[in-house]
Specification:
Blueprint (H helix, E strand, L loop, with lengths): L1 H12 L8 H27 L4 H16 L2 H11 L4 H5 L1 H7 L2 H26 L3 H9 L4 H31 L11 H12 L2 H30 L8
Helix pairs in contact: 1-10, 2-3, 2-7, 2-9, 2-10, 3-7, 4-7, 7-9, 9-11, 10-11
Main location: membrane
Family: Belongs to the binding-protein-dependent transport system permease family. HisMQ subfamily.
Protein name: Histidine/lysine/arginine/ornithine transport system permease protein HisM
């Protein structure tokens, strides 16, 4: 029993040189999903606030669908549902892509966080005072200059507190990766529970690890807020 516990403890935290640990897999999923979702959402948020309906509507539909359905269901559709289609299995690239639990999990996480972040950034853009836009236009800023120098920086600062919550929620969402047999923290904890029947110890260890990562992320965002939102803090 002790050997089993040591084995799973190493699988959670310590690499043997050939396999990634549960913590590394979880952080890897989080970083890739957040990086891709963040990048895509910047462009999509601009389209979301566009006055052109044909530009705005597809983005609205995307965010409506992915915010209106559970991430767990989205992962099941992407990992199990799509691969059951004859067209997917018959296409060389699509069959290769959707056969991997890692790739399906990342795709589901990216689409989900992108939908939420797009609406978050779009709301931040709408909250930018009209006077700032008019001042930029008066100075002769082009559309690209206005977005790159005024709108996007202001959007990112305004959305920072809410975006920190999205990152924490996405960390917790990575625990669904076990559905696609990805060996993240929860998957290893479940394996440990199945092998040792120590349910409380197995899942408590996983909970403590998630909590430590969450507090680290929260602390990092607090430091970022103090630096970039310093002008919003009350004068002492």
């Amino acid at each position: 029993m002790i050997d089993l516990i040591q084995h799973y403890w190493k699988a959670l935290l310590f690499s043997d040189g050939y396999h990634f640990t549960g913590v590394v897999v979880t952080l890897w999923l989080l970083v890739i999903a957040i990086a891709l979702g963040f990048t895509l959402s910047i462009g999509l948020s601009m389209a979301r606030v566009s006055s052109r309906k044909w530009v705005q509507f597809p983005v609205w539909l995307f965010t409506y669908v992915f915010r209106g359905t559970p991430l767990y269901v989205q992962l099941l559709i992407i990992y199990s549902g799509l691969f059951s289609l004859d067209y997917i299995r018959g296409h060389e690239f699509l069959s290769w892509f959707f056969r991997s639990g890692y790739r399906c999990t990342i795709l589901a996480l990216v689409l989900n966080t992108c939908a939420y972040t797009t609406e978050m950034f779009a709301g931040a853009i709408r909250s930018i005072p009209r006077g700032e836009i008019e001042a930029a236009q008066a100075y002769g800023f082009s559309g690209w200059q206005m977005y790159s120098h005024i709108i996007i920086p202001s959007m990112l600062r305004k959305a920072l507190p809410a975006y920190s919550n999205e990152v924490i929620l996405m960390l917790h969402a990575t625990s669904l990766a076990f559905t696609a047999t990805v060996p993240d923290i929860l998957k290893i904890a479940r394996d440990m529970n199945a092998a040792t029947y120590l349910s409380f110890q197995s899942f408590s260890i996983a909970a403590v690890i998630y909590m430590c990562i969450s507090f680290t992320l929260i602390g990092s965002f607090r430091l970022a807020e103090k630096r970039w939102l310093k002008h919003l803090q009350p004068a002492s």
